[in-house]
Write a structure and sequence with these properties.
281 residues; alpha/beta; Rossmann fold; eight-stranded mixed beta sheet; two-stranded antiparallel sheet; 10 strands
């Protein structure tokens, strides 16, 4: 327990009783402890939302970013010091809504960050409005007649946009989630882990009982993205585990300027800005 507790700050989590955030929080700490990564070697960027409160509860370098903007700072931190383990903790609204362009671009570039999406299919911090992953027809405060849009499929999106590591977890399957997160963090390159998370306060449809009837652990390793994509499109069942993983150079490994040592360890060249400033005076 001591190895796990080293990631706890002096503040105690304040999520709703029974919230899936507790399971994700614990699984992440256990994964980091298993990988023997010290708190000062971890940088976490959180988004706005219930999941964003990890910035207060997690003992590591943390940055509480703007809504939908957790991913760009995470990528920047990794480029500045690629010796850090960099994580982005974000909700389905921030990642698949406001931050969707960031997600797709970082996938394409294969930036070496692990993105943990707390996917409860709602904007729960603001009391339960519909999000990009809300099932069509769902009645929420912002969709009193039922959601019109069809929901975004995060796993299929990751597979289609060249993410090097794509997985799905479940907040109430903590041991399996820990195993998935361990592999995602160990992976060199972009890792997307979409974590199904029942919202016990505002979602009375997709409850723990609802998930228990649908989730199952993937037992096979897919031989191609196409095969994994077919499984990702299933609507009757929700597979848990790794859908796809491939080895290819991460973004920072292909930058010539980062060869040899991290950017923060390189000497700062003296630049005379006098002439440039004179042009604007």
């Amino acid at each position: 327990m001591r190895e796990v507790n080293q990631y706890d700050s002096h503040l105690k989590p304040t999520w709703c009783p029974g919230c899936g955030n507790f399971g994700i929080f614990t699984a992440l700490k256990e994964a980091l402890a298993q990988l023997k990564i010290k708190p000062h070697k971890v940088a976490i960027v959180t988004d706005v939302g219930c999941s964003g409160n990890n910035a207060d509860f997690f003992k590591a370098y943390t940055l509480h970013a703007l809504h939908g903007r957790a991913l760009p700072p995470a990528a920047g931190i990794k480029l500045a010091n690629h010796q850090l383990t960099v994580l982005a903790i974000i909700g389905d609204g921030g990642c698949y809504g406001e931050g969707l362009t960031h997600l797709i671009n970082l996938m394409r570039g294969n930036h070496d960050i692990t993105v943990l999406v707390h996917n409860n299919h709602l904007y729960s911090l603001t009391t339960g409005q519909y999000s990009p992953t809300t099932p069509k027809g769902t009645v929420t405060k912002s969709t009193p007649d039922g959601s019109i849009e069809v929901p975004l499929n995060p796993v299929a999106l990751g597979l289609a946009n060249q993410a090097a590591f794509v997985a799905r977890g479940y907040a109430f399957s903590q041991e399996h989630l820990k195993s998935t997160l361990t592999k995602a963090i160990r992976h060199v390159g972009f890792s997307l882990v979409d974590i199904l998370q029942p919202c016990v306060t505002f979602d009375k449809n997709q409850t723990a009982a609802w998930y228990q009837e649908r989730v199952f652990k993937l037992k096979k390793k897919f031989s191609s993205r196409q095969e994994a994509f077919t499984e990702a499109l299933r609507e009757d069942k929700l597979g848990l585990g790794i859908f796809w993983q491939e080895k290819r150079p991460a973004y920072h490994q292909e930058l010539k300027v980062l060869e040899g040592k991290p950017l923060i360890a390189k000497p700062i060249e003296k630049v005379n800005l006098g002439k440039l400033i004179e042009e604007f005076i």
